[in-house]
Design brief:
rod-shaped; 2 domains; 7 strands; alpha+beta; five-stranded mixed beta sheet; Heat Shock Protein 90
Length: about 350
């Protein structure tokens, strides 16, 4: 229903209620004669027409841009003027339809009647102002939400554009280490990397991807790292089957696994183990990555690029509904924990 239609429904309903109340109080003192009913009908149409002209005046004068305090004196003066116009029209029409003497008795209480009608116009002014205030507030709120969403979208795209080169740089370092040691493995690793990059380019167009898509990317990435670390790298999966119901930010789990290898496994002579676990509790997915190694204090405080990027993306997408925590589980293990809610919106971007 558009704004104009709502206005006319309220306008007709409001003045009809005014006439209905008048007829009720008149009936308490006397019977409703044809002349009184005619007067009520005249009141109805005068009320609608004068308030509609008044509305156009408010719009053209730009009163709706003023604050409430500034409008109060304008409403009072306008209501008194409208009340005088109302009675001038009323008595003119009634005098034309009936003998002028019939309307004379009402003149005795004219001042009180003018104040009563002025009060009606004043209430009308307040209701109209309130309606427009709420309408403008909603529009402004929608405008702000759209702006906020647009800003978040730009920021997310910036973060994703940073993440791909970061991943590429680390992957190329892994392959470079194999070139002299084992050229054949280096060739296989390049093939694996090309597959990974193709998938990341497709996923990078989305705000969120399915858990299965992210897990597939993690497995491909670990396949690349297996080529380099061989038996020094062990991976164990403990996944809740309900995890597939969730969507996650692209490269989120992969970034955590990459961080675990770079700052944990790679620094251990004998290598180590990475555990990737998920659990679903209500409408939340809990992702846990545990790796052998030690959490350096400076890494925990400053946080590397990948971790910072992940935290920022989680904040932009979920606000306070998502959490991220990395800490030392004990002297020889580091645990990274992420909690994200279900996300029902379309992820196409």
């Amino acid at each position: 229903m558009n704004k104009q239609k709502i206005y006319w429904i309220c306008q007709v309903s409001g003045w009809f209620l005014f006439v209905l109340l008048n007829s009720f109080f008149i009936q308490l003192e006397q019977e409703l004669s044809s002349q009184i009913i005619t007067g009520l009908v005249v009141s109805f149409f005068i009320g609608i027409s004068t308030s509609h002209v008044y509305r156009n005046f408010i719009i053209r004068s730009g009163w709706l841009k003023y604050g409430f305090i500034k409008l109060i004196p304008r409403f009072i003066i306008s209501s008194l003027i409208l009340s005088l116009v109302y009675y001038l029209l009323y008595f003119s029409i009634i005098s034309f339809l009936y003998e002028p003497t019939l309307s004379v008795p009402k003149l005795a209480g004219l001042f009180a009647d003018i104040l009563n009608i002025a009060f009606v116009y004043f209430v009308w002014s307040l209701i109209y102002f309130l309606f427009n205030f709420i309408e403008n507030y909603k529009k402004e709120e929608i405008k702000n939400l759209k702006w906020e969403a647009s800003t978040k979208e730009i920021e997310l795209n910036r973060l994703k554009s940073q993440l791909n080169p970061h991943f590429m740089f680390n992957a190329m370092n892994s392959i470079r280490a194999l070139v002299d040691e084992n050229p054949q493995k280096a060739k296989n690793a390049i093939t694996q990397l090309s597959n990974i990059l193709r998938n990341t380019l497709q996923m990078g167009r989305k705000r969120l991807i399915s858990f299965d898509e992210e897990l597939s990317l993690v497995r491909d990435y670990l396949g690349l790292e297996f080529t380099r670390y061989e038996e020094r790298l062990n991976v164990e999966y403990k996944l809740d089957p309900l995890s597939i119901q969730f969507k996650v930010p692209p490269l989120m789990i992969q970034t955590i696994v990459e961080n675990a290898i770079k700052h944990g496994i790679a620094k251990l002579i004998k290598g180590g183990k990475i555990e990737i676990q998920t659990a679903v509790k209500g409408d939340f997915l809990f992702i846990t990555v545990i790796n052998d190694g030690k959490l350096k204090e400076e890494i925990n405080q400053e946080k590397g690029f990948g971790i910072k990027n992940t935290i920022e993306r989680l904040s932009l997408l979920y606000g306070n509904n998502a959490t991220f925590n990395i800490r030392g589980l004990n002297e020889n293990k580091v645990i990274t924990e992420i909690k994200i809610p279900k996300y029902y919106e379309s992820t196409d971007n």
